[in-house]
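Exercise 7b. C-alpha cells:
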C-alpha cells in the first residue's frame, strides 16, 4: 500500500482503557483518492500489541488495482 500512500488525515481518536480507535482518511494517488479507515489498537505498557484495520473493500479496490498495475509495469 505504501507506493500509493500520499498521507493520512486523522478525523477522530477515541481511547478507552488499553484500546484506541483511530478514524482517518488514507489518502492515495489513485482513482480511490481518500479511503476512510479505522484502526483499533491495543496498547500494553505503552507498546502497541495488536492492530486491527477496518476499511471498505469496495472503496479500496482502485488502490489494489493501481498497485497491481504498477507492479506489472515494474514501477
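Sequence design result:
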Amino acid at each position: 500500500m505504501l507506493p500509493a500512500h500520499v498521507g493520512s488525515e486523522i478525523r477522530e481518536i477515541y481511547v478507552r482503557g488499553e484500546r484506541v480507535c483511530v478514524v482517518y482518511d488514507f489518502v492515495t494517488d489513485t482513482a480511490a483518492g481518500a479511503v476512510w479507515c479505522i484502526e483499533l489498537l491495543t496498547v500494553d505498557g505503552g507498546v502497541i500489541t495488536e492492530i486491527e484495520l477496518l476499511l471498505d473493500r469496495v472503496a479500496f479496490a482502485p488502490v489494489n488495482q493501481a498497485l497491481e498495475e504498477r507492479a506489472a509495469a515494474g514501477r
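Instructor comment: The domain at 2-58 is CATH 3.10.450.50 (Nuclear Transport Factor 2; Chain: A,). The mean pLDDT is 93.
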